[in-house]
Amino acid sequence: MTRTLLITGCSTGIGSCCARGMKARGWRVFATARKEADIARLKDDGVESLYLDYTEPDSIAAALADVLAASGGRLDALFNNGAYAQPGAVEDLPMAAMREQFEANFFGWHDLTRQVVPVMRRQGHGRIVNNSSVLGLIAIGFRGAYTATKFALEGYCDTLRIELAGTGIHVATIEPGPIESRLGQNAALAARRHIDMENSVHRDYYKHRFARLEQGIGNTRGQLGPQAVLKVLVHACESARPRTHYHVTRPTRMAAAARRLLPARLLHAALARAGRS
Ligand SMILES: NC(=O)c1ccc[n+]([C@@H]2O[C@H](COP(=O)([O-])OP(=O)(O)OC[C@H]3O[C@@H](n4cnc5c(N)ncnc54)[C@H](OP(=O)(O)O)[C@@H]3O)[C@@H](O)[C@H]2O)c1
Fold first, then answer.
1. H-type helices in the chain, by residue range?
2. Which one from 54, 84, 146, 156 is the annotated catalytic residue?
3. Tens-place pLDDT, residues 195-218
4. Is 82 in the pocket of ligand 1 (CB under 6 A)?
5. Whole-number mean pLDDT of the chain?
6. Active-site residue, 51 included
7. For residue 215, what are the contacts with CB-CB under 8 A and spacing of at least 6?
């Protein structure tokens, strides 16, 4: 029987690559996006596609209902992936920015996951894969909102894994480091939307940093293509013994090791330098 997979955030970057890549491996992929044009493009490429915005609970319920209607009630794997990165120093983040960030990157993921777990319990198996980040392992400056959602996600997934032990449902997190995508450009939009640059003590940093983000210039040291995430998603969905965590890229593996080995003061001094880049 063809296995079914629901992936969110498939307009660009990792989601787009994984939707097409998993379909090519024989999975029946349901890929979600938010813009009509993106949904149409996915459909043109032969990927079943529907609308889902994590900040709209009705769209989550409707998308899952459509998937289950099409698959005869079966969902073998869920890849929570759609998210964005709200930049800005913690002291400059208005409440609205923080709330929006958690709606998109955390609460919406919980909403969908909570509705998928009973489906997987009924069928006696399933894979829940969540796209976290190297910033779910370590923190750097000016990424407080995004980092908070990814740290929350790590704790959430560890808890869920414990609670689902023995049910046949496996929970994995993927921690990508720098991956080629539109994350930087989308972060620049979020920055312009919410950060009052002119009146911030960090004005000079923002001018430099946000202009670079808009031009798609990020820190590309150790960056890989989205295929690197596809590779571990395949393992998380297909292996008989999926891992709990997948550290993708060298910077992520180095960050994970540094967190284990370095005293907090040394680690934070090193990360303070990284946050300024
Ligand atoms: N690229 C990296 O270096 C990197 C590193 C660590 C972790 N990640 C994680 O990888 C995942 C994918 O990001 P990406 O790098 O592929 O970036 P991307 O190219 O910007 O793609 C993000 C996707 O998420 C969607 N999205 C944004 N807000 C959403 C919402 N409220 N509801 C549903 N979907 C939403 C976007 O849709 P629209 O096009 O409609 O905005 C887009 O399809 C994210 O979870 C991100 O945190 C990426």
1. 13-24, 36-44, 57-71, 95-102, 108-123, 144-163, 183-194, 203-214, 227-238, 250-261, 264-275
2. 146
3. 999 999 999 999 988 888 888 777
4. yes
5. 96
6. no
7. none
Q: Is the CB of 14 under 6 A from ligand 1?
A: yes
Identify which of 6, 8, 10, 14 to mutate to test ligand 1's pocket (most ligand atoms within 8 A of the CB).
Answer: 14
Q: Which atom of ligand 1 is closest in space to residue 54's alpha carbon?
A: 32
Residue 83's nearest CA partner among 172, 10, 2, 167 is: 10
Choice from 179, 180, 185, 223 to test ligand 1 binding pocket (greatest atom count within 8 A of CB): 179
Residue 147: helix, strand or coil by DSSP?
A: helix
Residue bearing the CA closest to ligand 1, atom 35: 82
What is the whole-number distance in angstroms between the Cα of residue 262 and the centre of ligand 1?
30
Contact 101, 153 (CB under 8 A): no
Sheet holding 48-51, edge to edge: 48-51, 28-33, 4-7, 77-80, 126-131, 169-176, 245-248
What DSSP state is assigned to residue 76?
A: -
Q: Which atom of ligand 1 is nearest to the CA of 185?
A: 20
1-53 pLDDT per residue, tens:
899 999 999 999 999 999 999 999 999 999 999 999 999 999 999 999 999 99
What pLDDT, on the 0 to 100 scale, is given for residue 218?
Answer: 74
State in Å: Cα 14 to ligand 1 middle: 7
For ligand 1, is residue 182 a contact (CB within 6 Å)?
yes
pLDDT for position 275: 66
Confidence at residue 216, expressed as pLDDT on a 0 to 100 scale: 78
| Verdict on whether the full-model pTM lies above 0.85 | yes
The 10 Å Cβ neighbour count of residue 105 is 26
Q: Which residues of 144-183 are buried (b: 16+ CB within 10 A; e: fewer)?
A: bbbbbbbbbbbebbeebbeebeeeebbbbbbbbbbbbbeb
Q: What are the tokens at 63? A: 């998308």
